Q: What sequence folds into this?
């Protein structure tokens, strides 16, 4: 089978294992059934902005042309730094977008990727956000009425907990913090300040996530689609936004949003 189209963030949903698919204007490709088969991805030398579709020589912020990167609400500064959100004060690139993405309930959460990290996401993005990060389990720490307040809580906890994932450790299953998440949640409550006390979530329910992996790699090498235009091998697993191959190569599909590729799938 052969598919030609633009890469985009892998869509995911939670079942007994995380289920992944790639959807664009031309095709939808389910990846879980491809585990154990030979897969080749060839970059065709063209990038189209995932916002406006125009050709661009360089991709910004995982798929945008420069004008969209500078003006689109999806790339506003508070996307990466929620404590800088000003939508609650009436300031945003697009207040209509902010109404559905910033001025709604947000969760501050703890997720075990390699360590236990703190993060922020919209209430509509659970558990997708955790799957995208390759978390094996997660727990909600606080629920706030907007993005800004969630960002303040996250900011207060960054001196005590990481907010980044070591992707190599995540893919190879190396866990550097094995404390139960309920224990870390109590620790966070004790050090998170007054605003966390206001929005603290008492429910200690855990969400566990399994991934489609035929084997866990011992070592991984990040593949650069800009330098070598073709990656291939037997697909052995998917975790986070990474495809994992039997030759230790891994590729972060989300990083190459907008890249036009040819995907070939075949049985071994």
A:
């Amino acid at each position: 089978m052969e598919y030609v189209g633009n890469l985009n963030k892998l869509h995911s949903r939670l079942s007994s294992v995380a289920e992944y698919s790639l959807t664009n204007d031309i095709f939808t490709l389910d990846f879980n059934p491809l585990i154990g088969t030979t897969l080749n991805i060839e970059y065709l030398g063209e990038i189209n902005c995932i916002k406006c579709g125009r050709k661009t020589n360089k991709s910004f912020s995982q798929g945008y042309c420069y004008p969209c990167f500078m003006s689109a609400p999806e790339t506003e500064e508070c996307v990466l730094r929620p404590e800088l959100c000003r939508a609650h004060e009436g300031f945003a690139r697009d207040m209509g977008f902010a109404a559905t993405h910033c001025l709604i309930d947000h969760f501050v959460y703890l997720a075990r990727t390699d360590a236990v990290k703190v993060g922020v996401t919209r209430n509509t993005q659970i558990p997708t956000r955790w799957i995208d990060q390759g978390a094996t389990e997660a727990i909600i720490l606080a629920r706030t009425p907007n993005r800004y307040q969630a960002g303040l809580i996250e900011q207060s906890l960054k001196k005590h907990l990481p907010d980044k994932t070591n992707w190599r450790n995540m893919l190879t299953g190396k866990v550097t913090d094995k404390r139960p998440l309920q224990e870390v949640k109590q620790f966070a409550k004790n050090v998170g300040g007054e605003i966390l006390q206001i929005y603290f979530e008492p429910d200690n329910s855990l969400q566990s996530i399994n991934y489609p992996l035929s084997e866990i790699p011992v070592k991984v090498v990040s593949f650069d689609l800009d330098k070598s235009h073709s990656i291939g091998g037997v697909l052995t697993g998917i975790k986070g936004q990474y495809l994992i191959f039997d030759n230790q190569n891994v590729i972060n599909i989300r990083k190459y949003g907008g890249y036009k590729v040819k995907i070939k799938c075949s049985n071994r």
Remarks:
- The chain has a mean pLDDT of 96.
- The first helix runs from residue 66 to 71.
